Amino acid sequence: MTSRITSSMFSSEDMLNVFSDGATVQRMLDVEAALARADAQHGVIPASAVQAIVGCCDAALIDMPSLMKAARLAGNRAIPLVRQLTELVAARDAEAAKYVHWGATSQDIIDTGLVLQLREALRLIDADLGKLAGALADLAGQHRHTPMAGRTWMQHALPITFGLKIAGWLDALLRHGERLDELRRRILALQFGGAAGTLASLGDKGAAVAEELARDLALALPDTPWHAHGDRFTEAACTMGMLTGTLGKMARDISLLMQTEVAEVFEPIAAGRGGSSTMPHKRNPVGCATVLTAATRVPALVSTMLSAMVQEHERALGGWQAEWDTLPEIMRLASGALEQMHAVISGLTIDTARMQRNLDATHGLLMAEAVTLALGGRLGRMQAHQMVEHACDQAGSTGTHLGDVLKKDATIRAELSEADIDRLLDPAGYTGEAESFIERVLHAHRAREAGKQ
Amino acid sequence: MTSRITSSMFSSEDMLNVFSDGATVQRMLDVEAALARADAQHGVIPASAVQAIVGCCDAALIDMPSLMKAARLAGNRAIPLVRQLTELVAARDAEAAKYVHWGATSQDIIDTGLVLQLREALRLIDADLGKLAGALADLAGQHRHTPMAGRTWMQHALPITFGLKIAGWLDALLRHGERLDELRRRILALQFGGAAGTLASLGDKGAAVAEELARDLALALPDTPWHAHGDRFTEAACTMGMLTGTLGKMARDISLLMQTEVAEVFEPIAAGRGGSSTMPHKRNPVGCATVLTAATRVPALVSTMLSAMVQEHERALGGWQAEWDTLPEIMRLASGALEQMHAVISGLTIDTARMQRNLDATHGLLMAEAVTLALGGRLGRMQAHQMVEHACDQAGSTGTHLGDVLKKDATIRAELSEADIDRLLDPAGYTGEAESFIERVLHAHRAREAGKQ
Amino acid sequence: MTSRITSSMFSSEDMLNVFSDGATVQRMLDVEAALARADAQHGVIPASAVQAIVGCCDAALIDMPSLMKAARLAGNRAIPLVRQLTELVAARDAEAAKYVHWGATSQDIIDTGLVLQLREALRLIDADLGKLAGALADLAGQHRHTPMAGRTWMQHALPITFGLKIAGWLDALLRHGERLDELRRRILALQFGGAAGTLASLGDKGAAVAEELARDLALALPDTPWHAHGDRFTEAACTMGMLTGTLGKMARDISLLMQTEVAEVFEPIAAGRGGSSTMPHKRNPVGCATVLTAATRVPALVSTMLSAMVQEHERALGGWQAEWDTLPEIMRLASGALEQMHAVISGLTIDTARMQRNLDATHGLLMAEAVTLALGGRLGRMQAHQMVEHACDQAGSTGTHLGDVLKKDATIRAELSEADIDRLLDPAGYTGEAESFIERVLHAHRAREAGKQ
Amino acid sequence: MTSRITSSMFSSEDMLNVFSDGATVQRMLDVEAALARADAQHGVIPASAVQAIVGCCDAALIDMPSLMKAARLAGNRAIPLVRQLTELVAARDAEAAKYVHWGATSQDIIDTGLVLQLREALRLIDADLGKLAGALADLAGQHRHTPMAGRTWMQHALPITFGLKIAGWLDALLRHGERLDELRRRILALQFGGAAGTLASLGDKGAAVAEELARDLALALPDTPWHAHGDRFTEAACTMGMLTGTLGKMARDISLLMQTEVAEVFEPIAAGRGGSSTMPHKRNPVGCATVLTAATRVPALVSTMLSAMVQEHERALGGWQAEWDTLPEIMRLASGALEQMHAVISGLTIDTARMQRNLDATHGLLMAEAVTLALGGRLGRMQAHQMVEHACDQAGSTGTHLGDVLKKDATIRAELSEADIDRLLDPAGYTGEAESFIERVLHAHRAREAGKQ
Fold first, then answer.
1. pTM for this structure?
2. Rounded to an integer, what distance in angstroms lies between the CA atom of residue B216 and that of residue C294?
3. Cβ separation C278–B392 shorter than 8 A
4. Which among A50, B368, C140, D129 could bridge C166 via Cys, Cβ 3.0 to 4.6 Å?
5. ipTM of the prediction
């Protein structure tokens, strides 16, 4: 048994279900059932065989422990599954049992079964992405005028608004939405080629059966079987990798803002959530931790998918098999990260007063650029930079407010009045295009939502 | 100095040039020049300053060793570059020097400069991809009827045609072409936000300057600055990773076919190419080795880009900087792999007689499926499978041709005549839909080429 | 539920058991039990509390589904486990329940529990490594004089012996054995620091309790708690990564030798093993495929462990949690690869006649170096190289044996007699130090085995 | 040209020199020179040839651009180097030129050359590691009594001392020192096997020449050539990966402590270091950024080395070549990280007053565990936990000091006096074994230093 206590912590429940043992087998049996129908429709197998075969394509009928054991010897799970299925059908209709799995080979069942699982998985991801984007859009709108410190290199840089930070997150998620749309066009495709990709075992009915099979499963019919080409599955991995990266960036930002000394935002509180076994006062960023765990693990799993693309000839040795656990794990981790981030965002506690207080923490140093630029227009950028750098050093070393230092400097006062200096040092007056950027992102979000309907 | 002897072996010359020191600095200076024009156009800086600034935006004027040294201390290469540029401008026009880099910050210059490099890089990749696809289309057409062994698990499985193998490669490349088209829409975008992404330093002219800057550089204007969101650059990495994976698969296939005992295809011969320092008879797959080197290295580099997406706040500590060498290295490796694969394919020596001889190597075992299916239609799949498996064992252990074993088996002969058996054992008669698959892929290729014009 | 059908295919049964849910919880409870004993021994908790606590430290008493659910909310599995344990103890002895988990924190239990699992895991690995090394030593000894083609760049290069190839594998495994010995000294160490690594919660008894706890669990006592330093766990990952790399190299070699056209060695046959669902003649390298799957997946998992080392302060956000599934998966994959490789090696079918036949396949070209060197001693290396290169080209293009070409070349015949040429072209006479290398490796193997006793 | 502006930012100067083009070629020529001496010593080549060959083994004589160009065609840099060397020797002594590179093959020169570079690289690493450990030992000693907040999940947890944090870093570095010692025993080994690893080209002198070559180069003589086994080089990569991980952890800690709101430690100030192009007040953690860049990039590079271990037969296609740029890049990044971390640590500005102030920031919540444990001894751990959790909630929501809340709680006051509560809430009194842990680590450090002399 694999370590399920731990791994189940990092996935959504729904995604655990999509890739459960039962679901994996059921999706393979769905392909077998559709194959029987397609074979019969084109006279490859007798119509009379369909009912018995389709009736047995039920994961509940499969002896799972025996399947697992046989899979290890056989090298894949399709061979023993077909064997069990054939026996089940034979018990109902010995004649029908002759036509199980007709014209297909292991990879057709495994790969197309995985495509069916991915269809469900991507639906979940898309729905959760939509929910998260909606929550972010609400928050960005609410905080379009909330000033906070912009931080570069993990140091205060210049004021921004909290809405702008959120709009940046949302903008990235909108791009992931686009990528998901594009991905679906390539990944939701039938894999059906028989043992070596020619469908030779179906005589002159190969193309017709393939077309019907794709129609039955509501998948695209590709120009040629693609089993030994990992790019379709790998694109799903890459897209999830990028999505998880963005979620990781959000979790990093939020967990930094939750630090004891910063304390600007907090994950929602819930019973049993985020407590410590020994420190009752802790409010741990449990949701962010799950997201960051995914963001730490998924990149390497994506590289496995990319490495595994170097597949030998018509079926690979190692490259194909490496996909089997890797892609589901990526989907589980991405789904868990999305779900947790939605929980975090939709219940986020925001302390705007603290944001303001933190803005003032450096006694005006945060506004140095505004002063530099105002002076730069008169004295040149380099000289202004040096003068303000000097004033900042003085303010920093003496604990004086930057405004006071500036006001005492004769050269500066020749260019700027006290009122000019006060105005230049007000964070709220120095957020530039933040609001217009937010509006543009919100507009793009509404356009995308409208396009979905 | 970094180890250029080695690394230059794995890139195309053109891509080395796109990411050379000189080009990197020049693209950053291109952004500075366009910024000066845009600033002046909207009255942010005096029009009189433009000529001096633009005139100095020439990498040939930059002291590179001093730039490198200062970059290490400063933590990025934009800071010392702006310093040198300002000094250069000051020497021509002291007043103009005040307006260098006005309103921008390091990441605007570095990120947008990298976008400009990527535009050139993707042009090279796209052109090379087109050439390789063309060469493959020609080859697939020529070999649509050339039978060869289909190989699964690195064992003979069933006959395919060489054209089908090539069509599979081409089909994957067509998908990469689609992905490149989609990628360009997101990556060829301006990054311009000033120190914290608000453009506050431009007062009320931020939006206008940004729009003009995008227009001047012929880049898309994004809804909001995206500096701390690595998904755009990472998508370029992922797309190159998938492309390199497909090229690696091709190189693996070709190098397997070049093995001494297989000897079906060979890389082209050229002076100084693929020889051994001690074994004069060797004809090493040097092109494939370069491609496989890229396919071994790029997946991990992609994971670096994904890991680096977890960036702190408005500018990251480590995540941003990790992109700088990684993405160029990915582009270099991908370009080198593409170039080498084109050289391999366009000069490939193909021994169709050897392909035929190898098909016969297993004394008919390769055709077992054809017999199994023919019998399966009469006796049921499982029983037919067992009977043919038994016949194969006999043929294998006694060194007899499968046809002879089958012809001596009374149960089988009750179902199949000698002529039936001979027909079933002919590889050329068992390539299924190979030809129609090839035609579909060639059609898609022609459609794509037509769409480009 | 995670996808166990698939993942269980790639692990040994024993390793699945070491990292099962039940075992994971049991090892954590083992630490809790030892902690109660150590606490009591130093008077931190009453001696009377020990029996009830220790008696409840039994995974069979734990409600696993409820544990899994609570773990997700809590952010780790120790918090809900301690809660359940406390309730179990309270039901027996309310007073004792006050002293459960005394002085420890979640990471002490999780990390030390994982160390205990690794102790068992490394024992299994070590035993399997010993068995594999033994099988290889036998085989290397048996084939010390069996000539085969040495292959570089996947082309015939020069003759080697099969024993030499095996000795190379064995030599690498011996180095892994050394690394395992060194690793154990660092990884089999107690992690015990309390909430922030000071053991403050134990007052002045911290050092004494830690010492006793280490003694009880038979682990080394480290100089300081190491929870936020991932290097110990990561070293286990790296060592397994290197081991898996060597096993992957062996599997690559063997699968290449098993190719239909090469056919020099074969994996053992077993019922249900390596068959194809549609091609009865196939004998797939199923064992090698499992090993190559591990070799494709483990490198990326190791990089996750390395990435996860960047842990924040006294307990990390993401970095720690990323270890939980990753390290067990590495152990499972490494153990499965080892087990499968042992099965492959200990039942390997070897066709020495085919090895000899393949040696002759290039009509003497393989022996070109021998001739080059013989001539080089008289004519200089470069000239000899060119002459033999020319002769090889002639032999290759005309299908003539290299010996015949050489014997007709007057310049060469001025230096070498016909007998000289025949002797130089005999593979068995050109295996250099192969035998002495084999002997040295076998000697090192025997020394290591002797040292273990 | 590769992008040297950027990559040179992340390496130490010394390591750039070890892996420069010139040094790479020189180390290969060092092997050629030693080979000529060893060949001559055992009569394989005439003694008269040695002087001319050795005299030409000077990288300054090599035409590098031509070498780079030829390397791309040849597939490695040894072939064209041997060609140039032979021409150089021929110009001096035509007879001697016949004996250049006698008995060796490309990989002997490339791999052993790389081993020689690694010897220098590991010397640098070891020296820098020693310096960093020394600086940490000093700092740990100075701050053995400096209380600071221990932080878990990026939240205040319990008090620790700054010395304890440093001792944790130092303890990890000491383990890396051990690993380096163990690594050197395996990596500083000759690779010498000729074209297929048999040394057949040396007739019966192979063993003797190999022994002399190892002696001449002061490398260990391995039991068998190891060219196709990547574990030796990969172990160097893994060891550097772990070291870089620890340095990354240190940089993460320090950069978190440098945040504007935390402000407990600061990187040293230097001219041109860590400034911003537009914000004169910034004091960016430039050193930490370099270290974190390395920690982001190296894990993936290590996985490349591990992936590349799956090498075919006696010389690989892709796996070998993938090492060439990867291992040097790892060494460069590790060295740069070490150097920067030493600069950071040796000039670290520490604000102990601020540490104390931050400890008080949560109004006593940080000390909740101390109270919980004191109460737990009387009321049981679970009940005490709940009571203190409740008090913390009250303190947090009302902004009251935890002490005041506790003192007003009758149940608690039944167990603890006001003085008890005050004592329990003093951080300095709750650092447990911190000091003894520090002493043990310092002792281990001194022992290691003593052992080196």
1. 0.96
2. 51
3. no
4. C140
5. 0.94
